[in-house]
Amino acid sequence: MTIQITLDQLTPGTCCTIIGLSAANMLGQRLLDMGIFPGLTLRVIRNAPLEDPMQVEIEGYSISLRHEEARFVEVEADGNR
Amino acid sequence: MGTDKIILALAGQPNCGKSTVFNALTGARQHVANYPGVTVEKMTGWYRYGDVRVTVVDLPGTYSLTSYSPEERVTRDFILHQAPSVVVNTMDASSLKRCLYFTFQLLEMEIPVILNLNMMDVAQNRGMTIDTEALSRGLGIPVVPTAITKGKGKTDLQAAILETAGQVLPSVPARVDYREMTSYISSLQERVTALSDLGDLYPLRWLAIKLMEGDEAVRDLVREKTKDYARLLAAVDQFRQQFRVAMDTAPDMHVANCRYQAAEGIARPCITRSKKTGKSLTDLIDTLVCHKIAGPVFMVGVLWSLYYLSIVQGYQITNYTWPLLAGFRNLVSDVLPIPGFIDVPLIRAFFLWLVDSVNALLNYIPIFFILFACIAFLEDSGYMPRMAFIMDRLFSRYGLHGQSTLPMVLGGIYVGGCAVPAVMSCKGIPDERSRLATILIIPMLNCLAKVPLYVLLINIYFAQHKGWAMFFISTISMLMVLPVSKLLTLTVLKDKEAAPFVMEMPPYHLPTVRGVLGCALERVWLFIRKITTIVVALAVVIFILLQFPGIGPERMDHYQARRDATVSSFYEEIAGTGYEADMADNSLMAMIRFWENYRNKKMRVKNPEAARAIDTEFEAANARFFSLVKPGRDRDAKQVNRALKTLIRERSQLLQEMRAERIDNSFLGYAGKALVPVSQWAGFNWRVNVALLGAFAAKESAVATLGALYEQGGANESLETRMARGEEGFTPLHALALMMFMALYPPCLATSIAVKLQSGSIKWMLFAMGYPMLLGLVVASLIFTGGSLLGLSGLQAMAAFYLLALGTTIAAGFITARQADTA
After folding, report:
1. Domain enclosing residue A35, as ranges
2. So what's the ipTM on this one?
3. For the whole model, what pTM was predicted?
4. A76 vs chain B: nearest CA distance in angstroms?
5. What does the DSSP assignment read for B320-367?
């Protein structure tokens, strides 16, 4: 059973599959440039000490992004791993 | 031959070891400059391979070749317009897939590309094996594996460069399959050919793809180079719209997706992964460094060390370098015409002023060198993005960026920074709006040069509450900076480009000594070259403003009369001592200089041995004079010694009075007086105005100028006493207003130049100089006029203002931030 949510809702330790990006232009391009592509598996590593931004791991490298930006990444949660 | 000169461009994504490759190829033959109009650094170097000279241009690291950031635009323009003979695409072998996404964009520009798989050692450690042969076949371009930090592969790379440069490629490189968009692209290619001759200037397919993506810079290119651009762009818009409707995706997202899939298709068969080897070292370090509690603690430790090493230890080193600069000044001073009893030749005054201005700046070099080295170390190690990660939440509320942390610490978040390196370190902030906001607020932080004035005023007017007053002034700058930054972001900066925060947190590297020192040296050199020349030019202007029109002939007569009186009373004193002949006419000045030189030298040494050496030296130079400086038991000599002391004291007093009067009668003095109607609301009289105006050259000079202006009393009194007496009506409230004005004081000369360099425009430099003045005046008036009306004491006003600033800061943090920039 999977639920479709956005990346900013995930808590540290969760894995998910990227479904799509709802941002275009600069932010969308930037997310794609950093390797956030539909179909890939992503893991939320941690939130920053003040809760924002968040650190995620994808394909072996780690990326930090603000929750405000993670809202545009549609994912399917795989549960904890 | 045609091939004995090669222009090679190095391109690649950030953190792929590109600068290591650059260093390995070019060695020390490097040159840094800025690309015209932007603040992106342009690194150029060269090497010789056989009898071929290869010029290497290190393009900025970018993830993509769109036109969203200045780095991307610079990279793309260079490839398009400078037509390098070959592009070496360096990439981190361990993140092959994402890097190929970039490679495909390079290949679309139809230039010879060599793929340089760097950091092969890292990839192997991670259990990855890459079949470079297969990769080369798949892409249709040469692939050279290297591990430059281990010294492997450099000659292979050089050989491949020579072979590929300027040649027509033996095979057609791989192309991205744009699937549903392919037909749109070919139709658009036809349109471009039909409506323009752009195809002769640029790769046609690339143009069509970029136009489908909606790339603004390429649209501008079309507007610029095509007569009938309106029709062409209308066709582009129509195609894009059709595609969007048909596919239900934004065309640019589709393009990026296809590129990524092509990269995946090429990369997958070439990589074999052995079993994953547990947590990497980077992950382990991150658990500590990004931890909720340990992370911030570690960061404070890093920042403290940075501050300690550069500002504190750097100042220690200036104790050793300053004598060199002082020696240079003495050298200049010896060459210049000798000063008279009260008249200093203008040319002497001018050159000494110039040397002093430059020395004041050069004195900072040890600090800058350590600082730049530390920053290079932090940059290379990969810690910077972690710092941004920790601080972003706090700063982004005020329109700043996580990466504003370092500049703000350097600028003096507590007390004692320097705005010049702080502004220079803003370079890395990707978001233009936040970068400008950071640059504009840094001068308001407490740089070291503001401290003497604070200490002076606190000692006079807040002597009972020194601790509180120091706490107030150290922390208030933070409470001013944050709301001001928010205000700037919501007003003048609101139309500036904001960039997404999304960034890579690269694996940690151990920086190399060569990389760190090389980088520090380059930046110091850039600083000296850019800033010193301009400081010299502006020092000349300020000299003129301070010297002219100067003391009128009538007043000059007055001073000459006083000089004559002083000198003749000296001769009366020494009459009958047997030393009259030694003191006649010109010899008197020689005696005075001898005396002063001796005192100066003596003052600088502490140990008795060195003191004895100086004695011997001076005695050897002129035994007669020396017997007057150190009279011993000889009664006559003692009498002359006393008379000389009085004479020298009176002379220095005369000189100081004249200096004060000269400033009074200078253009700057007039300006100080003219400003009184405005500045009176802040409680500043004209003297304070002059000191503040003079402080623009360097803030340290505020105390010196005040010193010169308050030189009426005996020379033995401290400035504190003189100022307290000289300004009967001056209250703690005045002092507080003055301190706050100083806190918000416009950037000094050197900082202004740094602002110009980093913001890339004179307009922003002028703004950075203008708005703090206005703000400072408003704040100082609020404190002084408001405080007077409410009948507050200095301490009460301080508390009230602090609470007001604190309230404003908290309130500003809650003003809802702009919505994310999305379309």
Report:
1. 4-80
2. 0.94
3. 0.80
4. 19
5. HHHHHHHHHHHHHHHHSPPP-SSPPPHHHHHHHHHHHHHHHHHTTHHH
